[in-house]
């Protein structure tokens, strides 16, 4: 089984059915549901996802989606060390830095999946778009 860290933008695509990206995101989560891959998500992603989806879908629907999401994925803790590393990382996007160090803190994670690869330019882990991962599996 492959272990992937998934960035918030892919999850938002999936939950909001944002076209044209939602189809590939849904395929990733279907693979997770069928135990073909394991998806890890940063705990702080839930804040970001909630904030964005609540504006579009409302509180109740968004919470329902997040409950469903939590059953499909493994939530990775954001630790003091993760924050300290993100604060000193030479990256313009602080949120991506938190995501990166959360992924890096778990030795099981093999790669990061995101639509914003430039946010992970300095990654020690391979970084893929959803379409690239689907071709590999």
Written description of the protein model:
The protein has 137 residues and is of the alpha/beta class. It has a single domain (2-136), classed as Rossmann fold (3-Layer(aba) Sandwich), CATH 3.40.50. The chain has helices at 8-16, 22-33, 43-57, 59-72, 80-88, 94-104, 130-136; strands spanning 2-6, 37-42, 74-76, 111-113, 127-128. The N and C termini lie close together (10 Å). The model has no long low-confidence stretch (mean pLDDT 95).
Total strand count, please?
5
Name the poorly predicted regions: none
As an assembly, this protein is: single chain
The CATH topology, please?
Rossmann fold
Order of helices and strands: EHHEHHEHHEEH
Q: Strand order, main sheet: write it out.
A: 3-2-1-4-5
Major β-sheet profile:
5 strands, parallel
Keyword list:
single chain; 137 residues; alpha/beta; Rossmann fold; 56% helix
Quick structural summary:
This protein has 137 residues and is α/β, with parallel strands linked by helices. It has 7 helices and 5 strands; from the N terminus they run E-H-H-E-H-H-E-H-H-E-E-H.
List the helices and strands and how they pair.
Layout: E1 2-6, H1 8-16, H2 22-33, E2 37-42, H3 43-57, H4 59-72, E3 74-76, H5 80-88, H6 94-104, E4 111-113, E5 127-128, H7 130-136
Parallel strand pairs: 1-2, 1-4, 2-3, 4-5
Helix pairs in contact: 1-2, 1-3, 2-7, 3-4, 5-6
